[in-house]
Specification:
hydrolase; mainly alpha; protease; Rhomboid-like fold; serine-type endopeptidase activity; transmembrane helix; Peptidase_S54_rhomboid_dom; 11 helices; 3 strands
Length: 256
């Protein structure tokens, strides 16, 4: 429904979102390395680094030529693989627009931990709902879903530029596209749980992101844009202006 383009939300605690930039660079580099490789190498990467629930749950074993890392590592490694340019492009666009402010709110190291846990949570829920699946799960959508949830809790009132339905540019509060996106993921999980897209991975990331931002954000970083002061709030805090003597009808006293 909405493609994010830009948010008017400056950084307050960090000068450069280098973890976000590093994650984007890693995802893009790995995509091109695998996309340009031979089919056999690509297949080995997808099965060896992708998350395969049946393998992690010890229901089947991978052929030896596909074993690259211990199977539990795939809770993380799957999030750095993508199927095509639109898959990686969409995930990286969301990460670029919303990741920097989440990194700013959490700090570099905790943001990286946040990202990886959200990825793992997405894989875990996917595996819990389809424990016998032998299809590899790949993509950063679980981690990115966590970032979307965290951004919604941190900055729902910040204005963002989006393309509505892929063609209409709009500048609207962040809670509109992000809340609708989250509701869509939840609805699709109920309506199409066996779809080729893993809605469960998205929902797992959303839940993890919403919980983790509560405990990992910097001390003093507010939720729900509470630091934004509206004109109405300024008027209430300042109180009514002091009336002049002429307005009150009282005599003006002076001192000699």
């Amino acid at each position: 429904m909405f493609i994010p383009l830009h948010d008017a939300n400056s950084l307050k605690h960090i000068k450069l979102q280098y973890v976000t930039i590093g994650l984007i660079a890693a995802n893009v580099l790995i995509f091109f390395l695998t996309a340009l490789s031979a089919d056999s190498t690509l297949q080995a990467a997808v099965y060896g680094l992708g998350y395969v629930p049946a393998v992690v749950n010890d229901l089947v074993e991978l052929p030896p030529q596909f074993v690259i890392l211990p199977e539990n590592f795939t809770y993380i490694t799957y999030a750095f693989l993508h199927g095509d340019i639109f898959h990686v492009g969409g995930n990286m666009l969301f990460l670029w627009v919303f990741g920097d402010n989440v990194e700013d709110a959490l700090g570099h190291f905790r943001y990286l931990i946040f990202y990886l846990i959200c990825a793992a949570a997405g894989a875990w829920l996917h595996g819990a709902m389809a424990p016998g699946s032998e299809a590899p799960l790949i993509g950063a959508s679980g981690a990115v879903a966590g970032i979307v949830a965290a951004y919604l809790m941190l900055h729902p009132r910040v204005k963002v530029w989006v393309l509505a339905f892929g063609r209409i540019p709009l500048r609207i509060p962040a809670f509109i596209p992000l809340a609708l996106w989250i509701v869509f993921q939840l609805a699709m999980l109920g309506l199409a749980p066996e779809d080729q897209i893993s809605w469960a991975a998205h929902v797992g990331g959303i839940v993890a992101g919403a919980v983790l931002v509560l405990v990992l954000r910097r001390r003093g970083v507010p939720l729900f844009d509470r630091s934004i002061v509206t004109p109405e709030a300024v008027e209430v805090e300042a109180g009514p202006a002091t009336a002049s003597p002429a307005e009150t009808g009282r005599p003006r006293w002076g001192r000699q």
